[in-house]
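S.,

As promised, the iron/sulfur cluster run. Input:
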Amino acid sequence: MQIIIDPNASVCPGVRRAIRRAEEALKTRSLTSVGDIIHNREEVRRLEQRGLQTVEQERVVKGTVDVSGRHLFIRSHGVGEKILQRLTEGAASVTDGTCPRVRRIHRLVRGYAEKGYQILIVGKVRHPEVIGISQECPGRQVVIEKEEDLDSIDRTQKSLLVAQTTIGRRLFEKMQKRIHALVEELCVVDTLCEELDKRYQTIIDFARSVDVVLLVGGRQSSNTNVLYQLCKQVNAHSYLIEKAAEIDPHWLSDAERIGITGSASTPRWQLDAVKFSFGNNVQKGVLNKKED
Ligand code: SF4
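Predicted complex:
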């Protein structure tokens, strides 16, 4: 049995930057992240052991939790400019881990909203990145997650269409076609993350090259779910796990080549940990099953 780690699996530049900034700050002080710093429970736990705390973003924005005097951390998904200003005023310090690509979307929608445009965002309504973008254009945005959401568009308004960076090209292009047919004056800016575009092809190639795919990532991560669906399309023996303990030895029976890969929010240490487990529990499990 060969265990292969996907050579193209790595955290995206935005998440890498955010984690580095948090680690740097944690060397000298405890840090409070506004929302989960990353959609990956195992990585969050690792950072918590170094002094990271997390408060729900919704509660911070509503003011139902007091974060004044704390050292705050803004995750790669970002928050709206006004919220950031408010937090900065009360906090001991604010470390901004917002991905520069997300920050560019903020500037873009703010500018168009000021010019009176309706802002159409293809993305998940409850995703923190979409919430942050919406905070830049309050009252002017429509989030399009599914077909029914198209009914909420004011067809008479000039509109800007953007995407949550991780939503996946297929959904964005499908919605773009529909919206073109509805809205006369439409400006489209493709804000999908280019890093992920490249990654979609490499993970498909990797999934095709192995018998079983173990995709390591957070279940609540949008990007992990998009990558998982891509793997499933080309390799039916694809499984999404958060850690090695979730591997069912039945998945691996008769497999010669087992591929371990990850999403844009899966650090390398998690892939190594899954590979390492094959020298311990999983492989023993497979052997036991064969002996049954
Ligand atoms: S997926 Fe792209 S946009 Fe999102 S944090 Fe990573 S680099 Fe930034």
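The CA atoms of residues 80 and 259 lie 39 Å apart. The domain at 101-188 is CATH 3.40.1010.20 (Cobalt-precorrin-4 Transmethylase; domain 1).

- D.
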